User: Which sequence fits this backbone?
């Protein structure tokens, strides 16, 4: 239920930011990685936008930090 609310928040916040949002997963972060959840949205968008996932992730974080109730956000390569 919490993951569904997070996903809904992300989709609402990013609506219009990218041409179309692909389906993306929200998962628990692996042991040893900072944070509670991770999303693969930047990787999904990188395929269609032909851009680096890190650049897209930074744009996603910027948009979410400005207008969402989500807490501390960061890009983690892995």
Assistant:
């Amino acid at each position: 239920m919490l993951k569904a609310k997070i996903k809904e928040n992300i989709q609402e916040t990013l609506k219009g930011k990218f041409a179309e949002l692909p389906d993306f997963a929200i998962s628990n972060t692996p042991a040893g990685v900072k944070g509670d959840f991770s999303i693969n949205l930047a990787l999904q968008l990188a395929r269609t936008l032909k851009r680096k996932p890190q650049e897209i992730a930074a744009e996603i974080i910027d948009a979410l930090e400005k207008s969402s109730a989500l807490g501390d956000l960061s890009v983690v390569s892995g």
